[in-house]
C-alpha cells in the first residue's frame, strides 16, 4: 500500500512540474549533457533495465534512451537483433502504450523505426477505434488506392497482391537532437501522437515516405545530410520544418498538409520536389534559401503561400499549380527563372512582389501571356520604381506585350494613388499641432513631430518610427491618414492636381494605353451620343406653325441604332475597364455637360433664321468614297464655288439618318464615307460651337487611339498606317 501511495505522489509531482504542453521551441532546446563525448554505449542489460523501468515524461510513461550511443551496425548484429523485438514488445504492450525518447543519442548503423511500431494489416478492422474520423477516411482512401494498384499489377504482370501492413505508433516519438549515422526508415508508419525531431541529424537517407502524422509534429532545426524522403506523407495537423537544413534532396512529392506547413528559414542545398503536394492551410517558406531547383508543379494551395525574403538561386517552377489565395514574394531574391506556366489563380489570388530583386541577368518571371501580369501586385509606388521597370523589361524580352503593358498600367495606377494622397492627406512636414492632434496623436507625440519639423523633414512616413514617442501602433494609425514628403506650394499643388486629373483620365479611358477594346468602347459610346445629338438638333426644329420634325420611321431607326451602338460600347467598357463606373463617369463629364448646356440655350432662345427648313450639314457631292480626314475642318471653305459643290443633306431619303453617324465618324475618328461639314451661312453660333467641341475631342480621341494601338500591336508603324 505504501509503495502505491509513493508512486502516486511521484506521478502527481511530475505532472505539476512537467505539464503537458505544446512542443518546445527549437531555440530553447539544450542538451542534457553538454559534452557529447561522455555518452554511454547502450548494452543489452541497460536496454532491458530501461525498458523495465520507464520514466514519466509529460504525463506519459516513456522508455528513456536519451544521451546514449546505440550501435546498430552489422558488426554488432547480436545487439541489433535483440534491440528491435525488445522495444517493439514493450512499446506496444496491450493496454499500456509507452512513448520512446531517443533525444541527444547517437544511432550508429541503419535505424529501422518501422520495426518498433504495432504491425497492423491495412485492411483490418480491429484497430479502427484508434483512428479519428478524418484518419479513417484517409485509411479508406489508402485502401482504395492500393487495391487499384494491386489489381493493375495482377492484370498486367500476373503478380498476386501482397498483404500490406502499416506500422502504428500510439504514443509520442522523441528524437530531439538525435544523431542518426545510418539510414532511417519510418516509411508506411501511422503516428497517432507527436513526432518530436527538433535538431535531429540524419547523415544518410531519412525515409518517411507514406507516413501519416496525426498530431502536431516538429522537425525544426533538423539537418538532413542526405535525401529526406517524405513522398506521399500526410500531415493531419501543423508540421514544423523551420530553420532546418536539407543538404540532400528534399522529396515531398504528393504530400498533403491538412494543417499549416512551416518551412521558415530552411536551407535547401539540393533540389526540392513538392510536385503534386496539397496545402489546405498556409504554407510558410519565408526566409528560405534554395541553392538548387524548387519544384511545386501541379501543387494545390488552398490558402496563402509565403515566400517572403526567400532566395532562389535556381529554377523555381509552379507549372500547373492552383492558387486559391495570394502568394507573398515580398523582398524575395531571384537569380534564375520563376515559372508560372499553365497556373490557375482564383479571382482573389495575386502575387505580392514588393521589394522583389532580380539579382542576375538570367532572373525572370515567366507565365501565361496576358495572365501573369494581371496577377502581380504592389502596395505602393515609393521604393518599387526600379522593380516595375525591371518587370516591364522582363516581359518585353519575352515578347509578352500585354503583360509589359500591364506593368506600366500598374506603375501609373500607383503613381495616381500617390498623387491623390499627396493632394488630400496631411503632410506631417507642414502639419500644425492642431492637425496632428486631429490625426489621433497625443500631445507628446505631436510636440515631438513639431520639434523634428524645425530640424529636418521626414523623407518617408516610416521615419517617424525613429522618434521615441512614436510606436508601431501610432505609425499604422498615421499611415492611412498622413503622408511625408516635400511641402507643396500652391502652384505645386495645382500642377499635381492637373497631373492627377490627366493621369486619371488616361487610366480610366485607355488603361494607360494598354487596352484597345476599352478605348474602342469609349469611342462607340461617344459616336452614338453625338450622332443622336446632331440628328436631334438638325431634325427637331419646331412644331408650330409648320412642324419641322423627323418621320416616325427615321426616329425609330435612329434611336434603335444609337441604342445598339451604345450597348456594344458599354459591353466593351464593362469587360475591359477595372473601374467601369468611373470610366463612364469620366466619359460623361467630357461629352455631356457642355453639349447639354448649349442645347438648352439653343432651344430656349429659339431659331428664327433663313434656311430654317434646310439641314445645317452639307456634303461633298463630287465623290463618295472612304477617306481619311485628319486635316479636315468641320466647316466648308469660304470660296463661293464651294457652295455649289457642297449641298445640304437630303431629309426625304429613308437612309438620311446614316449621315449623322458619318459626320461623327469624320469628327472623332477622322475618316468617313462622305465629306460632311457645316454650312457657312445662316448657321446658329451654338451649333457651330457644338461641332467644334466634338471636333476638338476627336483630335484628343484619335491621339489616344493611335497611342494605344502603337503600344498594343508590336511593330506597328504609324507612318505607314497614316499613309
What structural class should be given to the helix and strand makeup?
alpha/beta
Shape: elongated
Mean pLDDT: 85
The CA-CA distance between the termini, in Å, is 111 Å
**Low-confidence blocks of residues:** 1-34, 156-161, 717-723
SS field, number of helical segments: 19
Question: Could you estimate the helical fraction of the residues in percent?
Answer: 25-40%
Q: What strand line-up does the widest sheet have?
A: 1-4-6-11-15-19-23-27-31-35-39-43
How big is the Rg? 39 Å
| Biggest sheet record | 12 strands, parallel
| Number of DSSP-assigned strands | 52
Strand content: 15-25%
InterPro entries: RuvA_2-like
Protein name: Helix-hairpin-helix domain-containing protein
Organism: Laspinema olomoucense D3b
Transmembrane segments: 516-537, 557-574, 581-603
Explain how this protein is built.
This protein is an alpha/beta fold. It is built from 19 helices and 52 strands. The strands form eight sheets. Strands 1-4-6-11-15-19-23-27-31-35-39-43 form a twelve-stranded parallel sheet, with no helix packed on it. Strands 7-12-16-20-24-28-32-36-40-44 form a ten-stranded parallel sheet. Strand 2 and strand 3 (60-64) form a beta hairpin. The radius of gyration is 39 Å and the shape is elongated. The chain starts with a helix and ends with a helix.
